UniProtKB/TrEMBL annotation:
Belongs to the NhaA Na(+)/H(+) (TC 2.A.33) antiporter family. Keywords: Antiport, Cell membrane, Ion transport, Membrane, Sodium, Sodium transport, Transmembrane, Transmembrane helix, Transport. It catalyses: Na(+)(in) + 2 H(+)(out) = Na(+)(out) + 2 H(+)(in). This is Na(+)/H(+) antiporter NhaA.
Length: 433
């Protein structure tokens, strides 16, 4: 007879490993994030919305250290720092061993990402200015939510070229870097130079520990928490501390090491980031009213309307046109496995702006009614972009699947599909629209 299972007991190790492995996949991580957002929306629009607001606004912490924050604030400044730590590691990896290590391979996604940030910001500014609204939210539609975007791509993609995912990943890394710089430069409160100096001193110690190959979590965890607290009290958004530590972590292996420190930290922290940190942030950030009047405000008020236009239209124009112009007038070349129709679908997919867009919305409109409308705009624009991208990429996936089946039907006698023996090139007909 099997032993009884204890509710909320310690999860058996094989199950824990399976859960952690699942959370490292984009599909599962994106679905958990989506579930948290749906729970927030439903909860905030029921008779129990008062309980939602009470929990979100509940304060706790250490006042003596300047850390008496609401639960929603803890998730945005605290837990989200873990998300940015993982993002910083991904950025460092791309800069050292990935697509961004050489200008030739980095040019196209970098130009696409920069245009994909500049055009949405410009469209927001034009919309807000024309409607007499505030320009404070110009940065909201600049950010792409990589977890959601990759989840949608993973669900749709069974035969889409692997180069499409690589392009999206590289583009998202540059996009994240842009968002990080914007948060650090434009969304700072009054600076406390002593606290900020302490944070930079902590980062210097963190670097020296890495430089001299000092191991042991007991060195890094307390130091990381201290750096985060000092950064927060220094007036710079605390998530920047996570990015800085991610960039410092070593991505190369020494002799005798199975994995680099950065890979080890990413492997450990990614499930917590995808399964706890980001979903909890979404739970307390996405709870907005979706009543008729509130939805009407999204399309009648200049600030939320600018966000919708920026994400749904601006991202497409910026990324697609930027990629085309770079391929047309520079030495940068589009991957031969991709067609322009694939790039169009990816450009629409990049309009999914959730985690970082909501964060910037909170920073741009703290405690203001327009902030709730901007959050609703981010949600509506993200769903719209996901649906449109799903339609476009599903069509491309059907085309690639048909080409794959046709080529496999004519395999040579050696039993190896022809598709794996030809030189890399765009599949015949892949440019069909």
């Amino acid at each position: 007879m099997s032993s009884p299972r204890i509710v909320f007991g310690l999860v058996p190790w094989p199950e824990r490993q399976a859960i952690a492995s699942a959370l490292r996949t984009e599909t599962v991580g994106g679905l958990v994030l989506l579930a948290a957002a749906v729970v927030a929306l439903v909860w905030a629009n029921t008779p129990w919305s008062g309980a939602y607001e009470a929990i979100r606004d509940f304060h706790f912490g250490i006042p003596a250290l300047g850390l008496d924050l609401s639960l929603g604030h803890w998730t945005a400044d605290g837990l989200l720092a873990i998300f940015f730590l993982v993002a910083g590691i991904e950025l460092k990896r791309e800069l050292v061993v990935g697509e961004l290590r050489t200008p030739a391979t980095a040019a196209l996604p970098v130009i696409a990402a920069v245009c994909g940030m500049a055009v949405p910001a410009a469209l927001y500014a034009a919309t807000a200015w024309a409607g007499g609204g505030s320009l404070d939210g110009w940065a909201v539609p600049m950010a792409t939510d990589i977890a959601f975007a990759l989840a949608v791509l993973a669900v749709i993609s069974t035969h889409l070229p692997a180069a499409l995912r690589a392009f999206l990943l590289t583009l998202a890394v540059v996009d994240d870097l842009g968002a990080i710089l914007i948060i650090a430069i434009f969304f700072t409160s009054d600076l406390n130079l002593w606290a900020l100096g302490g944070a930079f001193a902590g980062l210097a110690v963190f670097y020296l520990l890495q430089r001299y190959r000092i191991r042991g979590w007991w060195w890094y965890v307390p130091l990381g928490i201290a750096i985060w607290a000092l950064m927060y009290n220094g007036g710079v958004h605390a998530t920047v501390a996570g990015v800085a530590m991610g960039l410092i972590l070593r991505t190369t292996r020494d002799k005798g090491e199975e994995v680099s420190p950065a890979s080890r930290v990413s492997h450990v922290m990614h499930p917590f980031s995808a399964g706890v940190a980001v979903p909890l942030f979404a739970l307390f950030a996405a709870g907005v009213s979706i009543s008729g009047p509130a939805l009407a405000e999204v399309f009648t008020s200049p600030e939320p309307l600018g966000v919708v236009i920026g994400l749904v239209v601006g991202k497409v124009l910026g990324i697609f046109v930027g990629t085309y112009l770079a391929a047309r007038f520079t030495k940068a070349e589009l991957n031969p496995d991709l067609a322009w129709a694939d790039v169009l679908g990816l450009s629409v997919l990049a309009g999914i702006g959730f985690t970082v867009a909501l964060l910037i919305g909170e920073l741009a409109f703290p405690g203001a009614a327009v902030g709730e409308h901007v959050k609703a705009a981010v949600l509506i624009a993200s769903v719209t972009a996901a649906v449109l991208a799903g339609v476009l990429l599903r069509r491309r996936n059907t085309l690639y699947r048909r080409l794959y089946e046709e080529e496999n039907a004519d395999d040579d006698a050696d039993g190896i599909p022809d598709i794996y023996q030809r030189t890399p090139a765009a599949p015949a007909g892949a440019n069909d629209n």
